[in-house]
Amino acid sequence: MARSFRIPAVLLAGLAALAGCSDVVNVNPATNAADPACAKVMIQLPQDLGGNALRDTTSQATAAWGDPTVAVLRCGLKPPGPTTTPCVSVNDVDWLSEDEGDHWRFTSYGRTPAVEVLISTTDTSGQSVLNSVTPAVANLPKTGACVGTQDADPAP
Fold it and tell me: Residue span of the signal peptide, if any (predicted)?
């Protein structure tokens, strides 16, 4: 009679961690992920975001941090046009800010190509992530900036 052994899931997880295995994060590439400007961004991204290590992804010009994933970045998006979406500025890089429930979506504004960062609302600080990735995004050519009502010319 053959004996079967059950290995507890905790032990399997521990073995995977010891082996240095981590699942690759499946991220769809942006339309213009092959833009050479994205390479300048990617090589300057931080290896760690608040204790969350950079992980391998399935697509060019993408990055992900944490296990489970707390932030995902894609470079090569079409730059957004004029919008009423709220805008925040971090070290001279403007970001459109959208609350999507379980995550924030930040899209660079006035940079070509655009960069998108999705950040978990529960697992990390959005401000901390933007502070960490902004220096890399600042390498993209600046083509515009967010403006507010205070920047508009008064009506005649």
Answer: 1-19
The residues spanned by each domain of the chain are 28-146
**pTM for the complete prediction?**
0.80
Cis status, amide bond into 156, omega within 30 of 0: no
pLDDT of 11 > 90? The answer is: no
Q: Length of the chain in residues, anyone?
A: 156
- Peptide bond before 79: cis, by omega within 30 degrees of 0? no
Instruction: Give the architecture-level CATH label for domain 28-146.
Output: 3-Layer(aba) Sandwich (3.40)
| Under 8 Å between Cβ of 111 and 143 | yes
Q: How confident is the model at residue 103 (pLDDT cuts 50, 70, 90)?
A: very high
- Taking alpha carbons only, the member of 51, 24, 41 closest to residue 133 is 41
Cβ atoms 72, 104 nearer than 8 A: no
What is the Cα–Cα distance from 53 to 55, expressed in whole angstroms? 6
